[in-house]
Amino acid sequence: MSTLVGTQLSGRYRLDAQIGAGGMSTVYKAFDVNLERPVAIKLLHREMSSDSDQLERFRREARAVAQLSSPHIVGVIDTGEDANRPYIVFEYVEGETLKDRIRRLGRLPVDESLAYAIEIARALGSAHVHQIVHRDVKPQNVLIDPEGSAKVTDFGIARSLRDDGLTADGRVLGTTDYVSPEQALGHDVDGQSDIYSLGVVLYEMLTGDVPFGGENQIAVAMKHVREDLPDIQRIRPEVSATTAAVLDRMTDKDLEHRYHDVPSLIADLEDALALEAARQGTSTGEATAVIRTLPARARRRLPFRMRHSLPVLGIIGLIAVAVAIVLIASHEVAPRVERGTGPGRVEQPTPEGTRIVSVKRTAAKDFDPLGDGEEHSETAALAVDRDAGTMWTTETYPDGLAGAGKDGVGIYIDAKPKVDAVGIDIQTPTPGFKASIYAAPPGAAPTTFPDGWTKVGGGTVSSTNKHFDLDTGGVSYRYYLVWITEFGPGADKAEISEIRLLQEVPA
Question: What 3-state DSSP class applies to 79?
């Protein structure tokens, strides 16, 4: 096929260089001599032209992509046939593939990974609206243009849900590194299969590698059927619980639990991007551009300075200075009053777009379901008194919790009647212990563990003021449990001076 370089198709498209090849076709960088612009040409191999199924699949790709309109899909410009060789003309995208980018850089920044996932999901959403499933979502089929934007290409095995009979039963199409369980088993697939494959792509962007390896493609495919993806937070601890939960749901083997459609996935990816950017206080690469496209719902999670332009911030800054001058001149400082415990005296500022959940001073309760039922209950209230100088502590365990035969002990907050908490802050004078955060619905607090509790976050309380993002899935819970599973190095107990729940500020 290399001898075709220099030839001109249909008297219009000059083939300048081969840039890709597969079992079915070859891709060339070409030049449209009529419009004087570069294009990409996918030319069906001559031996494939006599195969009616392959020929129809090739033509179907042209028809499928031609009806799609998305800034994140490589568009079809023209189709034709030259010397019995069908071809498709695409827009030419200068740049690298997402796979090349991962190979070059390794794991990508978390916010940039989410930004690319959003752009790919938007492309897939456009295809799914037209009942077209890509079926081969992988980073090799995502091009990064000079502006850094992602564009999905190669709908060569895409299939309209309206089409039947073009794929033999039991045949697995797609790349097994990214194949969905149902596709690996040869079952009929729909848009949920693309969502699973995109989840694997997101995993690779975050970790720098695919989740499964094996002796051959069948071994890898069976791992997608039988094994869960490795824990992303164990491999990359800075990934938030929110992002991890989205990834888990994208790659769930159970179709009932996996995202049912792309719009719901995009909404959660957008929220996760805003949250990650807020945690970093800045954005990197393509995330900067995607953040500007986020809906108001997601943008509320961003710090104020990331939501507004510099001129607006300048005006607000001048207003702030003027107000400060007035306050100083009049010596008037309004007292701060809150209902219940209120924000109180807490050293750690609240993340932008959130506020502290006001709870009663009796809202904290020690929790020791695996022992005698008591874990310094007399000091539990000190964890919500907004005084960093007082604290609740666990009992002393010289041999650690494991030595006492316990999986953990804890303390929970009663946020009556209920609240959809998005974060929790834990203050401690002795950081280093590990804690998981669980939640329980309205009603009586569960007296056993883990029955009745749902994990919503957690990790190592690595600093004296530790913030954890919570992923409640939009559910409002009444009880939030700090479940301590391991003490810090050399410690025989854990101490907590303050716990505070955070919720989003209503729009």
Answer: strand
- Give me the pLDDT at residue 22, please: 72
Residue with tokens 């042209």: 62
Return the pLDDT at 258.
95
Cα 424 from Cα 433, distance rounded (Å)? 16
Q: What is the 8-class DSSP label of residue 373?
A: S
User: Domain 355-504 belongs to what architecture?
Assistant: Sandwich (2.60)
pLDDT at 76: 86
Where in the chain are the domains? Answer: 2-91, 96-299, 303-335, 355-504
For the chain, which ranges sit under pLDDT 70?
A: 1-3, 23, 48-50, 156-174, 304-349, 507
Place of tokens 């874990």: 375
The CATH number assigned to the domain with range 2-91 reads 3.30.200.20
Cα–chain center distance at 477: 23
Does 136 participate in catalysis according to the annotation? yes
Asked whether the bond before 489 is cis by omega within 30 degrees of 0, the reply is: no
Is residue 123 within a helix (H) or strand (E), and if so which, with residue range?
Answer: helix 110-129
pTM tops 0.90, yes or no: no
Of the residues 136, 194, 268, 471, only one is catalytic, namely 136
Burial of 147: CB neighbours in 10 Å, binned 0-12, 13-18, 19+: exposed
Range 96-299: architecture per CATH: Orthogonal Bundle (1.10)
Rama region for 477: left / alpha / beta (φ>0; ψ in -120 to 50; rest): beta
pLDDT in tens, 445-463: 999 999 999 999 999 999 9
Give the whole-angstrom CA distance, residue 43 versus residue 58: 9
Cβ atoms of residues 176 and 239 within 8 Å: no
DSSP 3-state percent helix, strand, coil across the chain (nearest 5): 30, 25, 45
CA 243 to chain centre: 4
User: What is the C-alpha separation between 380 and 194, in angstroms, rounded?
Assistant: 48
Residue 6, phi then psi, degrees to nearest 5: 100, -15
Tell me if residue 457 falls in helix, strand or coil: strand
Q: E-assigned strands of 172-251?
A: none
Q: Is the dihedral of CA 343, 348, 352, 357 positive or negative?
A: negative
Beta-bridge partners for 427: 465, 498
Question: What pLDDT shows up at residue 347?
Answer: 45
